[in-house]
Specification:
InterPro entries: MSP_dom, VAP. The protein is an alpha+beta fold. It contains two helices and nine strands. It has a domain of 117 residues: Sandwich (Immunoglobulin-like). The radius of gyration is 51 Å and the shape is rod-shaped.
Length: 227
């Protein structure tokens, strides 16, 4: 819903600040209706700001100045990107409890406006220092990213070399085992051949003895017959 209030500033709420001091901003709400309205202000970082008043009523065709200040001193490296939401609706009842009043509101009857915020230093030197600080922070992040990427690449390269070395070592172990098995195979092969040769010689020796016995027996028999 629109047309209940007008807001100044309309888009960005500037906080005047000095280094290591509280920042302050001023917001003006204009009731463009002849009827009394209710308003409520919320922020995305409630612990960082003090809003006075944050809720209330504004009579018809009247305005209300809202004072907003930080709850802590602002540094040059302070992150400052809070957003503010201003809700407004016509007061159509005599309800005095604002919390109860807003709980009973229909969303379609509420005008909602959002503002961004930023720091504006009163001292130009502080403004320049803030920009330099932000630039330095940005450069630092770029440098950190570069260092991380470089280290990550070196780590991957080292891991690759290490893996290759491990593979070479594993291949060498396999080759040594294969050579050892090959030597053992040749040894057992020679031993089997030797056993086969010895067995053959032994067999031939037995056959020779048997043949000699047969010859002797034949000679003896022949001698006896000749007698």
């Amino acid at each position: 819903m629109q047309g209940i209030i007008e807001i100044d500033p309309k888009i960005i709420l500037e906080f005047m600040a000095e280094e290591n001091r509280f920042a302050h901003a001023q917001l003006t709400l204009y009731n463009v209706q002849s009827q009394q309205i209710a308003f409520k202000i919320k922020t995305t970082v409630p612990q960082m700001f003090q809003v006075k008043p944050s809720v209330g009523f504004i009579d018809g065709n009247q305005s209300q100045i809202i004072e907003i200040s930080t709850t802590q001193a602002i540094g040059l490296d302070q992150k400052f990107d809070a957003k503010f939401q201003i809700n407004a609706c016509l007061r159509d009842s005599n309800e005095q409890d604002l919390n109860q009043f807003w709980r009973s509101r229909d969303q379609s009857t509420i005008q909602t406006t959002q503002l961004k915020s930023k720091l504006k230093y009163q001292n130009p030197q502080d403004q320049q220092n803030q920009q330099q600080q932000q630039q330095t922070t940005g450069d630092s992040k770029i440098l950190e990213s570069s260092v991380f990427n470089s280290s990550h690449s070196e780590s991957r390269m080292f891991k690759s070399i290490k893996d290759d070395n491990q593979k070479d070592e594993l291949v060498k172990q396999y080759k040594d085992q294969l050579e050892k098995l090959s030597q053992e195979y040749q040894f057992f092969k020679q031993k089997v051949q030797q056993e086969q040769f010895n067995s053959l010689q032994k067999k031939e020796s037995i056959n020779t003895k048997q043949a000699l016995i047969f010859v002797i027996i034949a000679l003896v028999i022949g001698y006896i017959i000749g007698k």
